[in-house]
Write a structure and sequence with these properties.
Distance between the termini: 39 Å
Shape: globular
Number of helices: 9
Number of domains: 2
Strand order of the largest sheet: 2-1-5-6-7
Strand content: 15-25%
Number of strands: 7
Largest sheet: 5 strands, parallel
Order of helices and strands: HHHHHHHEHEEEEHEE
Radius of gyration: 19 Å
Helix content: 40-55%
Low-confidence stretches: none
CATH topology of the largest domain: Rossmann fold
């Protein structure tokens, strides 16, 4: 990974913020043991200093911490305790998608997974995926594009896609400003929840309509595996924090 001075600083800050977010879910001792078991030795004293911001981890250590968290998918352990599907088949996604600590942890994972893949536009659908998509776009230094289910009065030119949603049976629309995605851009689709794959397919189709290339898919939670059929062939890397099987 080739990094400039700003990249080093961003990694240090990202690691410190992620450790601070993990404090909500794990005692310091557990985090020290978790990192140590994966080859990153951090004392409880240093961890406490990182969390409080009194010092930042050195760039190499910060990068090692982030890699351990991404490769071990520590998010899966956290979401395994939180994410549930109720008797109606509804996921408690709002609790997850607006939890800033979960967003910070997910952003760190996305940074490690996609920083070495050319990504210059993050595409999501309104509304629950926006906080995560914004955070990832900021970490990767990327554009952010949001497809909405209604037209904004201040924008005249849109890409429009109509698709069928069966429950309840209806046609729904997604509108993406025509300037949002440009020809040749490399797109990372970010969503809070993957289930049927219809929204994922719609976003991928909008990117294709703009002559852009979808290179990645990132989601906090997925239910079962039907959504896999909507993954474009151009995708290089897929990440799902937690797959719930029903």
């Amino acid at each position: 990974m080739i990094m400039r001075r700003l990249d080093y600083t961003n990694i240090q800050l990202l690691a410190a913020k992620t450790l601070r977010a993990l404090k909500k879910f794990y005692p310091h001792r557990d985090l020290v043991d978790y990192l140590g078991s994966r080859g990153v030795k951090v004392s409880e004293v240093d961890l406490s200093r990182y969390v409080t911001g009194s010092i930042l981890p050195k760039p190499d250590r910060a990068l090692s911490i982030l890699r351990v968290l991404a490769e071990g998918n520590i998010l899966e352990r956290i979401l395994g305790e939180i994410a549930v599907v109720d008797r109606r088949g509804v996921v408690n996604i709002v609790r997850i998608a607006y939890d800033l600590d979960i967003i910070r942890i997910a952003t760190a994972i996305a940074y490690i997974l996609y920083n070495n893949i050319k990504v210059n536009n993050i595409l999501t659908a309104a509304v629950n995926g926006i906080p995560l998509a914004f955070s990832i776009a900021e970490a990767l230094g990327s554009k952010l594009s949001v497809a909405k289910h209604e037209v904004d009065a201040g924008i005249e030119d849109y890409l429009e896609l109509r698709y069928f949603a069966p429950d309840p049976p209806r046609y729904t629309h997604l509108y993406l400003p025509s300037y949002a995605v440009r020809r040749g851009e490399h797109i990372l689709i970010v969503d809070d929840l993957l289930q049927s794959g219809r929204t994922l397919k719609a976003l991928a189709t909008l990117a294709e309509m703009a002559n852009a290339r979808v290179v990645g898919v990132f989601s906090l939670v997925a239910v079962n595996y039907a959504w896999r059929e909507s993954i474009p062939d151009t995708v290089e890397k897929i990440f799902v924090g937690k797959i719930l099987e029903t």
